[in-house]
Amino acid sequence: MEEQVLNTEHTDGIRLTWNKLPIIPKDTTLPIPISVLYSPLNPSPIIPHEPLFCANSVCRSVFNPFCKIINNQWTCILCNTINNGVIPTSTTVDYILNKVVPEFMYVLVVDMCTFDKERHDLLVEGVRSTLESLPLYSKVGLILFGTNIELFEFSCSVKKVYLFSGKKEYLKEDLQNIICGGSVSKEVGGNLGNLNCFFTSPEKMAMNFIKRDPFPVLDGNRSVRCTGSAISLAVSLLSFCVNDTPAKIILFTQGPPTFGPGCLASLSLSDNIRSNNDILKGKADYYKKGIEYYNKLGHRMVGIGVSLDILAATLYDVGIEEMRGMTDMTGGCVVMA
């Protein structure tokens, strides 16, 4: 039995807490919860065609491990239609699609307020690793933030940067007026005309663009970090780009927002960042406004079909409690290191 389970894990790339459910009395809680660990990079069989769909035009369900297989034919579990087709040997397979794959769009929102050169080098290495893991056919935009916000243009060999204040939330209309003079031309398929210059392929993204915030941090103060304003700019940029196109914002941060909309901590280090007890007792000054602002950004992302991931490499509280609405609403993830 153990060898069979190990072979299944190796073949399918999954590990279950229960491979066979025990018989227990009604209203009894399992001592170990039901869960599954999936390895997306596990080698799996490659099927050189589209997924197998049920021949019933009304049903069109996909072949799955719950279908009955008899003599190289499978029976749909929803409508009992008998279908012909090549039967995969594993419950986890990779299909080679004949469809034209749309370009994935990513906007990297990178915190320039690194504490020292060592942490800055780690940040650059993290961004480089992220770019290497992105699909080759994806397009990537870059936004840096600290005291101000920098939006990079990649249309020519000379680096061109648009500088934005970190004091305000940026809506779609604001970006349209500032960069495009009030008009945006669109190409067929929803891709940007004169805003497509803000995206490039992952391999062309230069790491020397990522510099530390040039503004000095005063003694006894935190870094001036306009995280909320930078995220709103990324959402506004993607609002012109996405039209049935997968898009994601990836936030790299190393500290709490201390400036602009979505501020979660004061600049003075003498003022401690809110604790869990402060939240429970209603003494967290920035908590309610922070949740309200980041939830509003989450709704904006949902409206255009964009998700957000947060990568936080720091021991400090970066405000995940207030920001988690953005990841929860959009299906993003939070990684803390």
From TrEMBL:
Location relative to the cell: Cytoplasm; Cytoplasmic vesicle, COPII-coated vesicle membrane; Endoplasmic reticulum membrane; Golgi apparatus membrane
Keywords: Cytoplasm, Cytoplasmic vesicle, Endoplasmic reticulum, ER-Golgi transport, Golgi apparatus, Membrane, Metal-binding, Protein transport, Transport, Zinc
Presence of the UniProt keyword Cytoplasm in the record: yes
Signal sequence, renumbered to the chain: none
One annotated GO molecular function: GTPase activator activity
Swiss-Prot/TrEMBL GO biological process terms: COPII-coated vesicle cargo loading; intracellular protein transport
A Pfam match: Sec23_trunk
Principal location: cytoplasm
Membrane topology, as annotated: Peripheral membrane protein
Biological role: Component of the coat protein complex II (COPII) which promotes the formation of transport vesicles from the endoplasmic reticulum (ER). The coat has two main functions, the physical deformation of the endoplasmic reticulum membrane into vesicles and the selection of cargo molecules.
Family recorded in the similarity comment: Belongs to the SEC23/SEC24 family. SEC23 subfamily.
Protein name from the UniProt record: Protein transport protein SEC23
Organism: Hamiltosporidium tvaerminnensis
